[in-house]
């Protein structure tokens, strides 16, 4: 069985067979009981506070109203899927009838251009953030390794890192938009400019934690390991692959997890400001809409943003556990 699955199942198994029941109950309480207590307290506080907050759009939505809006968004997505299927079915029937009359007719299929659903915008945001994060990681990890191995390279690059690290995504976005508009000029674009604007803004903002933490991880390589590498006469690449990377993985993944969290926050802000398709645009559109359901829908988006961020972080943690050489270290 997969080690992760066994870690989840093991307490229940030992409890059933009667092995250390007190210890297993304590473990289950820590794993499930305490998070449930925290969640219930949060819901109670949320419900109690929402009944005392009245806005220009009505009462602030509580958990029940937010859940109702989630169901409504799900129904709208189902209706949109039916409309899309009917749209393509009508084209297929029409093309089939035309081809019966004229065998030489070349059928054409038009793309469905209906408004994106809530779930379409979640998917769009996920694709954008992962594209920017992966590109940033490909750039940041090698830079971090190089400046971690060379004090001179670190001295040269560190001032630039400290200058650009605190720059807000709201400052980068106009520059990125102008550069993309000027450089990305083509009659047959592979990617739309809105996607590139958001992706490069994410890239520029999430580079720095990975660079800094990777360099710090490389610097933790002990002198004993460096001596072993010299005795074995390892090449630079072999030294990095066999000595440096295994030692720096914990700090490197700390940087990657921080970068991914920053990337997700930056993307939502960039989508709101630039009106690029995604969850950020959904939130802004609902705010501008000003209907009685808008606050509930915004709360749905806020919770989805949080849950997606949590899932992305847990995914990075699982990846770190998979590639880490020291399986005995507790990672959280």
Automatic annotation (TrEMBL):
Record localization: Cell membrane
Keywords from the UniProt entry: Cell membrane, Membrane, Transmembrane, Transmembrane helix, Transport
Bilayer topology: Multi-pass membrane protein
CDD domains found in the cross-reference section: TM_PBP2
One Pfam family from the record: BPD_transp_1
Keyword Transport: yes
Keyword Transport: yes
Main location: membrane
Span of domain ABC transmembrane type-1: 122-316
Transmembrane spans: 31-49, 133-157, 169-186, 198-222, 243-274, 294-312
Top-level taxon: Bacteria
Family: Belongs to the binding-protein-dependent transport system permease family.
PANTHER family referenced in this protein's UniProt entry, alphabetically: ALKANE SULFONATE ABC TRANSPORTER-RELATED, MEMBRANE SUBUNIT, NITRATE IMPORT PERMEASE PROTEIN NRTB
Protein name: ABC transporter permease
């Amino acid at each position: 069985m997969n080690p992760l699955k066994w870690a989840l199942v093991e307490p229940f198994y030992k409890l059933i067979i009667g092995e250390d029941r007190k210890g297993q109950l304590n473990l289950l309480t820590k794993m499930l009981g305490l998070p449930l207590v925290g969640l219930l307290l949060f819901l109670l506080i949320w419900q109690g506070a929402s009944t005392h907050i009245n806005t220009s759009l009505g009462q602030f939505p509580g958990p029940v109203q937010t859940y109702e809006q989630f169901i409504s968004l799900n129904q709208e997505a189902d209706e949109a899927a039916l409309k899309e299927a009917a749209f393509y079915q009508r084209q297929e029937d029409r093309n089939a009838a035309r081809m019966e009359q004229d065998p030489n007719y070349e059928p054409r299929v038009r793309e469905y251009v209906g408004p994106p659903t809530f779930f379409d915008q979640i998917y769009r945001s996920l694709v954008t953030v992962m594209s920017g994060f992966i590109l940033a990681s490909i750039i940041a990890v090698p830079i971090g390794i190089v400046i971690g191995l060379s004090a001179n390279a670190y001295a040269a690059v560190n001032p630039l890192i400290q200058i650009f690290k605190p720059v807000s995504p709201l400052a980068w976005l106009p520059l990125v938009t102008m550069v993309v508009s000027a450089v990305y000029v083509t009659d047959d674009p592979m990617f739309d400019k809105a996607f590139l604007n958001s992706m490069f803004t994410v890239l520029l903002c999430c580079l720095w934690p990975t660079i800094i933490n990777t360099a710090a991880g490389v610097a933790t390589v002990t002198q004993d390991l460096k001596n072993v590498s010299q005795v074995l006469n390892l090449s630079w690449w072999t030294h990095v692959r066999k000595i440096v990377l295994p030692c720096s993985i914990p700090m490197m993944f700390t940087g990657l997890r921080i970068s991914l969290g920053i990337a997700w926050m930056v993307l939502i802000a960039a989508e709101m400001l630039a009106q690029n398709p995604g969850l950020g645009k959904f939130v802004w559109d609902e705010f501008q809409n000003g209907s009685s359901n808008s606050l509930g829908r915004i709360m749905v988006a806020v919770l989805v943003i949080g849950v997606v961020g949590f899932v992305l972080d847990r995914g990075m943690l699982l990846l770190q556990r998979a590639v880490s050489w020291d399986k005995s270290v507790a990672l959280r």
